[in-house]
Amino acid sequence: MNVLVIGGGGREHALAWRLAQDPEVKAITAAPGSDGMCPPAARAAVDAADVDALVRLAVDGRFDLVVVGPEAPLVAGLADRLAAAGVAVAGPGAAAARLEGSKIFAKDFMARHGIPTARYEVHDQAATARRSLEAGRFEFPVVIKADGLAAGKGVVIAADLSAAQAALAEMMERRCFGAAGDRVVVEEFLQGEEASCMALTDGEHVVPLPPAQDHKRVFDDDRGPNTGGMGAYSDDRILPPGLADAILDAVIRPTVRGMAAEGHPFRGVLYAGLMLTAAGPRVLEFNVRFGDPETQAVLPRLRGSLAETLHLLAEGRLDHARLDTDPWPAVCVVLASGGYPGEYAKGRPIHGLELAGQHPHVTVFHAGTRREGERFVTAGGRVLGVTARGADLDAAVMRAYEAASQVHFDGMHYRRDIALKGLRRYR
Ligand SMILES: Nc1ncnc2c1ncn2[C@@H]1O[C@H](COP(=O)(O)OP(=O)(O)O)[C@@H](O)[C@H]1O
Ligand SMILES: [Mg+2]
Q1: Residue whose CA is closest, atom 19 of ligand 1?
Q2: Which residues lie with the beta carbon below 6 Å from any ligand 1 atom?
Q3: CATH of the domain at 150
Q4: Helices (H), 114-160
Q5: Residue 31 is part of a domain; what is its CATH number?
Q6: Looking at residues 327-344, what average pLDDT do you find?
Q7: Residue 410 and residue 351 share a domain
Q8: Strand, coil or helix: what is 382?
């Protein structure tokens, strides 16, 4: 198989790394890829947002399978275009990608199909949203979400009415997210621990992937502003006994059935971001692709051929897939640039990469680096994802931090408490 991976972050490095282990895979190309994922991948200088150029690349390069990392090209219809050109693609078409591209679509879809989620209202006027809050229809804190894609910045948890008003004004009047904020979801604040549940589906059959937990805030103990994700771990115990099946039955399968029944079957990675509340799991959001950094902790646990599985998915034959999960947990610690998620410098030399990646159960995924002669330098906010597996969660955590401590670059910072909630709970 000749595989094309779209994207160039840590998630895509993990995909290329994992696909390269599958016996069917002869070659991997990443568009645009990154220096750090070569090898195993080769790079094609095509932007992940340039749908026309990606379709030309996939057709001309005679790729047997296209795996799409980021959501934007899916929402823009890349998978429809590839399928029309006869290229096997693991990713949903634009209509199905609305599950992520429009939070209003996702909420209304869940309401239509009885999928558990936070109580909500949709507003297209800041004034009506304000009146609803003033009338006490929601308690504080309340959650306000821009409808469209907002690069992970479109959700505000407002502590009181004035914070809510400020958020509504930002989104709907000052239009800081452009059209993505013209309509908003106002929803009830839920309490609990979050979990990321991903499943592969061809629109009918479902192959669940092991659960993961992301760490969104920049500082330890979930303090500071939100980021793209400062680390993740995957351990089967993230979901208490019985809950994995309950989520499949209450969330994943009804979503797959509902999308098919509404005429746009979902083919790809269905990611449910869940709040595990005292009353049961509730969907916070859907994503329509692999999570980042969750993928960096989940893929090292998969046994069997991911390439074959994703190809079966593209063909609508996922019932033939044989993919297992290794019981060993995995932990990914993100090493970030000084100042991230705010302003940060680039071009800082990275030391200790080889030493960090030496251990057989450690892999260092490149999220934002660039090769400069013989060395790598920083080129993004999230720079590296140091991932380790271990016989138990303690071992995986220790190994990941041991490896992380080998790496240095000016300004580097990372959270010291990745998987700590899990470690405490399982003890
Ligand atoms: N209803 C809610 N109650 C409590 N926290 C929420 C709620 N909705 C979202 N959040 C928090 O905000 C984060 C981002 O929201 P999410 O819906 O995942 O949007 P996005 O990932 O597109 O920014 C979640 O990971 C969660 O921590
Ligand atoms: Mg999210």
Answers
A1: 155
A2: 118, 143, 145, 152, 154-155, 157, 187, 189-190, 194, 216, 273, 284-285
A3: 3.30.1490.20
A4: 126-134
A5: 3.40.50.20
A6: 97
A7: yes
A8: strand
